[in-house]
Design a protein that fits this description.
Chains A, B, C, D: One of its GO terms (molecular function) is chorismate synthase activity. The structure is a homotetramer. By secondary structure, chain A is of the alpha+beta class. Helices cover 26% and strands 21% of the residues of chain A. Chain A has helices spanning 38-48, 96-99, 108-115, 131-144, 184-199, 227-236, 249-252, 257-260, 327-349; strands at 5-6, 11-15, 22-28, 65-67, 71-72, 75-76, 81-86, 101-102, 149-157, 160-161, 206-213, 241-246, 278-279, 282-283, 288-294, 303-308, 313-317. At the C-D interface, strand 1, helix 3, helix 6, strand 12 and helix 7 of C face strand 1, helix 3, helix 6, strand 12 and helix 7 of D.
Chain lengths: 355, 355, 355, 355
């Protein structure tokens, strides 16, 4: 398996299975001289961790990160930052019931066919547990990007969505409710919806919107590494993501050019921002915003047919500690991935001109 | 500018500006021993080229490709394939009117701010002319993937869309009309729509759907280089693309897990395919399908305000040879990018197991 | 700092400072299905570790490796292999005497000037302690390359060298003496030399020769990634290395073509092997052999002038636990780096032809 | 074939066979705003081209480069620079005599075994003709590095060598003689030697030394991408190179630490420079110098046994237009590769610290 690294200059490589000894990663390329706020890193992990509210999985994992290298007296040294999150929940659970079974719409079947072998415990490498490492690295990237604001929030759960433009939202309220929706009335409906779904033993999808403010003009490397292409890839690499759109997105495909064009102000800003802050693959200084679609979690607490390695259809039933809706815990993951991409492109931008 | 290469093993690097001497590229990593069908390559270029029908730009560019290396007696040798498409249309046109002007929703402003200098003639590097090189490389990738079928088609123009599942379409009809929509009744409506928009001097967006059949199980490199993440990046790197979704996509975000899960048949195929042929980032052997959103072309034949380098708002008007809708010409580009990604992952797959 | 990764498909990324909490790495791209011999891995670490004989540093470090991921029931799963070696020797030693001092011919000065900050404890990232991670990964690569023999040995210490062609040596004797020279008479002289140098509080350089047998024809990726170019880079990346030559090497530069050409046998082997098993950057099936030059260790137990951060020349003296000659402990490092390169190129070779 | 790209940020990808239509390349990552001196680029090509003197091959190739992109009004735009050198010498020569023959110590055998097919005309991709593309890119890199001096020269031919330290040489004299040795008395001997060898129909090896002055402190990316490791790889990727050493090199392996250490001056410079300007993989501001060993050209104008594809030994004889000694024409190639590496590391250095 190649594919465990993201970034060209600010690079994160991760390792680890859901129920192995530990997960972790290496950040290679973090500039030296950055004084780290370790509490802020842990805060981001806490936003992602299981058991944080009644509408997420009730598994208990402290998810505390330990740094092994790259930091001296609290400051990054420019050398690779090795970190680890020990798996405390890797109890001697009996997994024999899923050992030879491929759960529907999970990665069990594809991993086994690809690699000929798999660590079936809790989904192994395909578990979203891996994203904790991304959150650690993203938290460091955020600190490097002190002047840039990255705000993700739950914009829909099932068919309940915020029907306001993001400009009318107060992002400081995102963390004030357990679904992470800054619009309080909508948040209440969303929470009720998730609780209802949970009672049914079912799961539900949703979308997350992310807004990035104060990005300087000039981030992005045409033609293949356009800024939104890399943001899209980063988001699509998150477990359960099925779609990505930025700026006008799929709505833009219905519009006319005369409606869609963003006319300039004299200072280079634009009167509208259907471009989503990126033109020709390069940031133009306006807000970058995009939307990410998450499918419903595949593990449902209902009986379902599965396939076993003998080619038989067998009945199975999920256990009780999965997320009825992945979206609230995915908000910090979306922010982390956005931070990693922006940090990488901030470094890439440094050599664009001759000096 | 880094960013002009796509692929890890089957790698394409492109160069060239819209009105420079030539555009072209290098394919590094094409396996040796592939007998090339040069007519088929030119056919793909012809599907993309200007002037092919009344609903696309009437510019005349023959777009004939010349190969400089990597092929001996019609067979790939494993060495890099250098190719070129000479720009015959680079006439001594007077571009002074756009020299100091940034057109709205083009890349003029961002290129100039990023690089401090730009080739303003016809959009320079940001012109979709660059995609001709992608089509050349994609045509070779398609030939390498002889057993895999890649079919893209226009699925919507403005608010006119095919209201059938792709399984009910006959892809052999895609090329039978100038909008490249395999559903003939819808095609007629789309064409009428584009003609109407063209008369208005306006432009309109649309979507392209792509279906990839006969992909073996096992393509994809978790966790960051999931197959759909790389497909998404490849599509988002195409000019004017604003969104990407695969399988259930944004609709999936509204669904419940009990509805969304794809139950297995005994042979490992699935009864439904909301997964879109990819689970955990790895192909599962079912059809891969995805949808790409294109915004309306920014150049409209109407007066618009633009910004000049002196910080003044000036009125400008597009000239008469631009595409009213980019979608029909983008169909072969979507296929080319899909072929490049699949070819790359077919090679990557070769070393996943110990042997 | 970028630069902590080696390999294109079989990739090792390392982290860790000499006196930090731990060193370690991630191997991304190891094929699945490889049953690991953990004792063999530890054996390689033991060949490198301090304190193993009277002629190496007497520091005590157990150097035991712990695997965190990528292995399930003793078999590689294709997912990234995360591993760690905890630093047990990171005692609360007082390093204040070197905090502001740049030792001559160490990396103290360059690290501080480059990064503006450094972990001065024991050389930090520039310490050869980092190579323990390489030995772990190299040991796994060796197991993947079961049919290929990689034998490195000490070929000279100061001006004492083996004056026989490698074909006359019995590599099974390399480990029978503490200098790792398979020629016993020469080994004795070398050991005496190192002991003499050690008594003087001085250090001495040496060379290591490495012979790789049973390499299949076809490894190497021209033009920039020729097999010997990557081997050379890998060796030059080892601490204290000043030179690399393969086949006829620098002697070849004195020869005539009529003497130097390796004439063929009918089976494609060659009568001589001045090419060193590589022609045009690609292995030809003959033995690959190369020689690596190591400078004397910079830390001498004699008084020396050093520079401090105030721009003053200060006298300093090395402490008593450094290697008088780095070569015996570097033998397994050279083998590890060779194994990493060969493993990577074995995987790269899998996609050279169309199939 | 992967492997046709060098560089991480300042990237060169080349293509082309000796007797194909053209050779060329793409430079991706050259910063914008660099005003190019095209005559200086052609001058470098002229230093490399055949037929320039009586002691090199008498083939006639004008080797004039044409730029297709990336430059506007003489200034780099930051977009990829595509360039081509058309092969004017690709006459309809009859190559049937070497079609099925593997010449000794050439790459014929290895290419055919690796790829199953090869362009046998004039060595195809394995021909040193490919290095013309490197010289073009290196010439641009040199212009980017205006304040850095890169001087290579012939330091030995066979057993004739300059017996002075490089500090005693006047590099302005390198181009004053056809062997490119700045020591005139030695140059005469070298030229006489090559002429003698040429009369014998034989070839001879040699070494090139390269000195890089005014390199700022801080270039180099530990641990695997140390500056000298990348320089070594770049040099080893040149056709016919068998060895690389920098600073004290192989001599350093015979020395004692007390002799070898470079003591500091108060300003951070060192009294000696056995380190060769690089410590811990990072430049320290002193002169970087290294030496490269070239084997004798394999094509001799004498009868030799070769192998054919039927497994028979056949007699063959080289034709009369090959180089008796590759070294004089390789001097600009060594400089070009050095410039490419230094340019890349100058860009990499821009993001090492947080700012």
């Amino acid at each position: 398996m190649a594919g465990n690294t993201i970034g060209k200059l600010f690079k994160l490589t991760t390792y680890g299975e859901s129920h192995g000894k530990a997960i972790g990663g290496i950040i290679d390329g973090c500039p030296s001289g950055l004084t780290l706020d370790f509490d802020a890193i842990q805060d981001e992990l806490n936003r992602r961790k299981p058991g944080q509210s009644k509408i997420v999985t009730q598994r208990k994992e402290p998810d505390s990160v330990e740094f092994y290298s790259g930091i001296f007296e609290g400051v990054t040294t420019g050398t690779p930052i090795g970190f680890v999150i020990h798996n405390t929940n890797q109890k001697s659970k009996d997994y024999s019931h899923i050992k030879d079974v491929y759960r529907p719409s999970h990665a069990d079947y594809t991993y086994e066919k690809k690699y000929g072998v798999r660590d079936y415990r809790g989904g192994g490498r395909s578990s979203a547990r891996e994203t904790a490492s991304r959150v650690v690295a993203g938290a460091i990237a955020k600190q490097m990007l002190a002047s840039i604001e990255i705000n993700a929030f739950t914009s829909s759960v099932g068919d309940i969505f915020i029907d306001k433009p993001y400009q009318d939202l107060d992002f400081s309220k995102t963390e004030s409710n357990i679904i992470r929706c800054p619009d309080e009335a909508t948040a209440e409906k969303m929470i009720a919806k998730v609780e209802e779904i949970k009672k049914q033993g079912d799961t539900i999808g949703g979308t997350i919107t992310c807004v990035i403010k104060n990005v300087p003009v000039g981030l992005g490397e045409p033609v293949f590494d356009k800024l939104h292409a890399e943001l899209g890839k980063a988001m699509l690499s998150i477990n359960a993501v099925k779609g990505f759109e930025y700026g006008s997105g799929f709505c833009g495909a219905k519009m006319k050019g005369s409606e869609h064009n963003d006319l300039f102000n004299k200072d280079g800003t634009t009167k509208t921002n259907l471009s989503g802050g990126i033109q020709g693959g390069i940031s133009n200084g306006m807000d970058i915003y995009f939307r990410v679609a998450f499918k419903p979690v595949a593990t449902v607490i209902q009986k379902q047919d599965a396939l076993n390695s003998a080619g038989e259809i067998v009945e199975m039933q999920g256990k009780g500690r999965h997320d009825p809706c992945v979206v609230p815990r995915a908000v910090p993951i979306v922010e982390a991935m956005a931070a990693l991409v922006i940090a990488d492109y901030m470094l890439l931008r440094r050599q664009e001109t001759n000096k």
